[in-house]
Amino acid sequence: MTLTSVDKDPETRTMTLTTQFDAPVARVWQVWGDPRQLERWWGPPTYPATVLDHDLTPGGSVTYLMTGPEGDKHRGWWRVLAADAPHRLEFEDGFADDAGNPNNDLPTTTVRVTLQEQAGGGTRMEIASTFPSLEAMEQLIAMGMEEGLTAAIGQIDQLLAPQGR
Amino acid sequence: MVVGDVDAEHADRVFHALADATRRDIVAVVLRGEQSVSDLARRYPMSFAAVHKHVGVLERAGLVTKQRRGREQRVRGNADTLREAHRLLDQLEVVWRQRLDRIDAILADPPEAEPNEGASS
Questions:
Q1: Between β-strands A123-130 and A109-117, what pairing exists: parallel, antiparallel or unpaired?
Q2: Smaller CB count within 10 Å for chain B: N or C?
Q3: Whole-angstrom Cα distance, residue A31 to residue A37?
Q4: Domain-by-domain residue ranges, chain A?
């Protein structure tokens, strides 16, 4: 995998990552389309995830449960806004309460995924993640983004020290 | 690539500051509105000194600012929203970089190690 670009635009509150994989589009799509593969990468290794619902059609939803090192449970959901397998997926990503119901008090982010065939059989994947408002960003900073902070703390030094890896 | 711009030491302070539940709550409270350290101390089952210390950690991380007004120390969320935005986007980048590394590991698996092949919808 090669990370080809990272773009952060505070004005539109969007972070865009572009990566290149050697695998074909159909294979890369599976990491989104197969719930067993999705749960292997969505959360950090210290927060094993279980994907409960998984319907990648417009209007469909994905729900998941992550268990932290101290047995703490974190639930989240996606609401699928657009899907065109194996090339496009757009969803709203939010937090849920202990019963799995969407927590509407907490901000959501919108994620747009685009997969493109490359000459030579590889795949270009673009991920754009957008916050709905600055207030939402501040709120997420304040509560500590579930994965970005709580779980990544142990790994953050190692990730930030070199220029990527 | 923007990665080199990340100030590792500062990121470290921010992550450390937000690793504590009380400090996260303090940030959430003062982002909604300015509070004195005494106001804050009344909210938590801990001493004024302990809350004051938490505020100090947050201040060094740039998450709050403290201003003396008369006998009071007023605490507010850092209004520099663009910087806040940058900071959060940096964190989001870290989250996604980790995810991409894990995706990469999955793609490197031999096919027989994928138990639920074909479940893509």
A1: antiparallel
A2: N
A3: 5
A4: 2-158
**Closest residue by Cα to residue B27 from A45, A86, A145, A77:** A145
Give the one of B3, B94, B96 whose C-beta lies nearest to A156's C-beta. Answer: B94
Report the percentage of chain A scoring pLDDT > 70.
Answer: 81
Contacts of B82 (CB under 8 A, 6+ apart): A10
* CATH number 3.30.530.20 is the correct assignment for the domain at A2-158: yes
Tens-digit pLDDT profile for residues A54-80? 999 999 999 999 988 888 888 999 999
Q: Does A158 reach chain B within 8 Å, measured CB to CB?
A: no
| Domains of chain B, first to last | 3-112 (1.10.10.10)
DSSP assigned state of B87? H
User: Which residue is it, tokens 């709203």?
Assistant: A92
d(C-alpha B105, C-alpha A86), whole Å: 20
Task: Give whole-number Cα distances, A41 to A154, B101, B103, in Å.
Answer: 17, 8, 6
